[in-house]
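Data availability (excerpt). All sequences and predicted token strings are deposited with the supplementary files. A representative entry, Universal stress protein, is shown inline so that the format can be inspected without opening the archive.
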Amino acid sequence: MSIGNDTGKAGTDAALADTPIVVADLAVIVTGAASDEAAIAYGETLASEFGAHLDCHLLNHIPTPILATAPGSETLAAEFARQAEVVGEKAEEKLRGRLDRLGVPWELRRSNGTLGELGYAVTRQSGLVDLVVQSQRSVVEATDMSLFEAVLFDARMPILLIPAEAAAVSGLPSTVLVAFRDTPESARAIAAALPLLKRATQVILATVAEEGAAEQRGLEPMNDMARHLARHGVKVEIRELAAWKDPAEGLLKEADAVGAELVVAGAYGHSRLREYLLGGVTRELIRHCRLPLLMAH
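Structure token line:
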């Protein structure tokens, strides 16, 4: 089922469809690892396409002694800080050399601290930009997901995870798969993705089938969302996918089948504790999506 922007009163709808949605500031979170390249390269593509500013944020983690009150812990903490400062300076110097080759305006800031301190820094900066970009690998390989979750829960900002395969992408996605659920998280992810959806040539609004009537399965809310997007000038195709034991796998299979170049999804529709203990769509998408993945909570 396809829904265009040809319904309703032409004047109001056409004006809304033609209204540009601006992306002026992008934050790229980096750690000094080789996996940063995917986020930097994709960030440059986005900044170039939207005429945006790139704000790179180097997070330099300072470990803390396991037993903070044990004898010698202060000396150990000071040594950890000294070593981290050396590592941070080297990473910053290397990163500046990479950023000097960018064709867009940029700035680099570095935050040194414990995970809690870095979480505060990430929250603060994320609230000053339109979109946060980070490499998928840095999230998957992190000891925990506190910094990723600081963007979603504390700053309440969208985050775009970039897999290594997308480092060579040179333009905006032309085909986008939107994983729809009738939840605030899904609606916020779609709203955050609007600048990209308006520039895409094909947007597929997909949901995994559930039991019950159409209203219970969320088809009516999905039709409402499609009409909303149509008023923004987005031509949408609606698809209800067959039921999957693992909904994330079904969505990723569909993304591959349609040749999608971006997946949009709400994050943590269930509680984080339930996702940690039982698994969930959010964590499976983060681990296994091989396309840029835009999420919001």
